[in-house]
Amino acid sequence: NPMHLVKSVKAGKPDIHPLSMEELNLFLEKVSPRYKNFFIVAFFTGMRFGEMSALKWKNVDFKLGVIKVRETRVRGEEGRPKTKRSVRDIKMLPPVVEAFRDQRNATMGKSEYVFLNQYGLPLLPDTVNEVIWKPALKKAGLATRRLYETRHTFATLMLDAGELPGWVQRMMGHETLQ
To answer: Which pTM value belongs to this model?
Structure first.
């Protein structure tokens, strides 16, 4: 195969643009109230979008104060998380506990899923990105960013708050500290 002689081009990693705490608060003021709890959980847990889309109430443990990440949704298909490390328990910080308590009124008993769209179905990434995330950033006067920046925001905020890198790594489900 002549392609064995060709070296693969390495794709560069995109620059990250996490939100500061001030920007995060501005965003939360402008985002649709229907999705505010979703974004509070995203910003203060570092969960991947697919993990949040597949999150079921049975995996939110108020007694232990953890979210059990056991499933993810990718391209509409639900399955096991990305890696072995992605199967994890995430400590619920106080804003997350409050967001879940508020979210209970909206979806508990209506669905096994925590976060739903206006039709009572699990959230889809493209819709959230184009219809909720980007317009809320614009209303808040913030630069356009990828929806994935919610994870980078979590990591940055936690490290700035003095959390150990290993703790942040475990909460995010990363294989390595890198």
So the answer is: 0.89
